[in-house]
Amino acid sequence: MKRKQFLLTALAITPTIVWGESLTGKKSNKSADKPFVVDAGKSRFGDVIMFKGVNHNDLKISSKDTGGQLSVFEYTGFEKTGPSLHVHLYQDEIFTITEGEYRFVVGETTHLLKAGQTIFLPRNIPHTWIQLSERGKMIYFLQPAGKMEEFFIQMSALKQAPSPEESARFHKEHGMKTVGPPLSL
């Protein structure tokens, strides 16, 4: 191969290599070899991941299944709560409400969502949400998956709420940044 052709070829494939690795923080791996089913009310690997000690955050499709490209969770809320205002540095999120009502704040905009509605949250835009109904349920996707599964597992394992310093460290280690308090009713 002539030098000029080699350089042009190398330049052409560089974005693909950089993009694939920079979004996930690791090289792309192979996806799962076989289809699988995760039953209602269950998590992909049988573990129970709690959010604030009460609400279920079931992993449905793992980053291990998708070569780090996607994670899918089902959130079931039994109390009117939500996360702190935060930013995902490397992931986009998509939420589909399947039961109940939620208020989402994305940047400077507030959205009220009901069952059947979907919202897209681009990376690097501060956002949060709060459940408005007594019970709520939503399916949400993180793309690429990043380290969100590990974040939820670590937070679920805590015996008490983390200090603001611990929370900031956990978020940073998992590609996020807390930028404000959670919403209140």
Overview of the molecule:
With 185 residues, this protein is of the alpha+beta class. The protein has one domain (50-182): Jelly Rolls (Sandwich), CATH 2.60.120. Helix content is 23%, strand content 35%. It is built from 3 helices and 11 strands; from the N terminus they run H-E-E-E-E-E-E-E-E-E-E-H-H-E. The strands form 3 sheets. A 6-stranded antiparallel sheet has the order 1-2-3-10-5-8, covered by helices on one side. It has a 3-stranded antiparallel sheet with strand order 7-6-9, with no helix packed on it. Strand 1 and strand 2 form a beta hairpin.
What is the domain total for the residues? 1
Class per helix and strand makeup: alpha+beta
From the coordinates shown, what is the CATH architecture? Sandwich
Distance between the termini: 66 Å
So what's the CATH class? Mainly Beta
Strand arrangement across the biggest beta sheet:
1-2-3-10-5-8
Helix tally equals 3
CATH superfamily: Jelly Rolls
Calculate Rg over CA atoms.
Answer: 18 Å
The overall strand count is 11
Largest sheet: 6 strands, antiparallel
β-strand amount: 35-45%
Which segments are poorly predicted (pLDDT under 50) over 5 or more consecutive residues?
6-27
- Mean pLDDT, all residues: 84
Please provide the ordered H/E string of secondary-structure elements: HEEEEEEEEEEHHE
- Kindly identify the CATH topology: Jelly Rolls
Question: Which geometry do the CA atoms define?
Answer: globular
Instruction: Estimate the helix proportion, in percent.
Output: 10-25%
